[in-house]
Design a protein that fits this description.
single chain, about 300 residues, mainly alpha, about 70% helix
């Protein structure tokens, strides 16, 4: 309890096994994978959608926290720097990624973006004191091959130095988001999600204002924006941060590749977008690599 009559909303470790937190994290990634379905029905630009999802998600999360007694600054004070840095990284990784989409092509930007978790895994011995086994390295190689396959043609549209640098920045902030949140242990997933989504909103607001301008959604956009804000941002980030904080950094990095695979599969199943043979092979490689990385933990 953080104060008399107020719960800190953390899930007691004694009552939850590691499998529970794997479930939370994977469910969050699957929700992220449905983003493309909602985006396909929304008329405003990608960065404007991010602005709206952080606005809606932030308002709802903040309201829930306030209704349940508010923030306990006594419990989050020691981790506030990481919460602020995590929220800033969350906003900047989105802003840089959408800028990279415009400067490069989506496939190449996505490929570079997902180098972020790979970087975390490779640096995990220094960052988290986790042993980097041969099995983990093999799993990472398998995932990397799969990611190249599912992103399709990465050369279309030409290359640009600003685009490559912007995509690299997005990968850096993606990696930073994982690292900063692995330093958070006392703050609940709900409070972490609320603070970081609110900070991300401010960051994305500045980015959108300086680039494409503020959004003007049409009435048909509203239901989809509410879904992506309430479910894929509000709920999903509570699950995401709750799981991320409790899992090994290497597992977080490898399993994160469920996100692009699920996005590909959901788009094929629901939006009837075609999947090439290479993309199917790539999806199998990524899932297989993630599973391989979780085997033989005793090595």
């Amino acid at each position: 309890m953080t104060a008399k009559g107020k719960s800190d909303l953390r899930i007691p470790d004694r009552k939850r096994g590691t499998g529970f937190y794997y479930g939370l994290y994977i469910l969050a990634l699957l929700l992220f994978g449905t983003n493309g379905i909602y985006v396909a029905h929304i008329s405003i630009s990608g960065s404007q959608i991010v602005l709206m999802r952080t606005l809606i998600g932030g308002i709802v999360l903040t309201a829930i926290v306030l209704l349940r007694g508010g923030f306990s600054f006594r419990s989050i004070r020691s981790e506030l720097p990481y919460l602020v840095l995590g929220g800033t990284a969350l906003g900047l990784n989105w802003a840089a990624l959408f800028a990279a989409y415009r400067l490069l092509n989506v496939s190449l930007a996505t490929l570079i973006y997902y180098a972020g978790p790979m970087l975390v895994l490779l640096l995990s011995p220094r960052l988290f004191g986790e042993k980097l086994t041969k099995m983990k390295i093999l799993a990472l190689a398998v995932v990397a091959v799969g990611l190249v396959f599912i992103t399709g043609s990465i050369a279309a549209g030409g290359l640009s130095i600003p685009g490559l640098l912007t995509a690299a920045v997005s990968a850096f902030f993606y990696a930073s988001l994982i690292v900063f949140n692995k330093r958070i242990h006392k703050t609940s997933g709900l409070h972490t999600a609320t603070i970081e989504v609110d900070i991300a909103f401010v960051v994305v607001l500045i980015f959108v204002f300086l680039t494409v301008g503020l959004p003007h959604p049409v009435p048909s956009d509203i239901p989809w924006l509410l879904l992506i804000g309430l479910v894929n941002t509000g709920l999903a980030y509570v699950l995401y941060f709750s799981g991320l904080q409790k899992l090994p950094g290497q597992s977080v990095a490898l399993i994160s590749y469920i996100d692009p695979v699920s996005a590909l599969v959901f788009s094929a199943l629901i939006l009837h977008e075609s999947m090439t043979v290479l993309q199917i092979i790539g999806a199998v490689f990524i899932i297989g690599g993630a599973m391989l990385g979780e085997l033989r933990k005793s090595q």
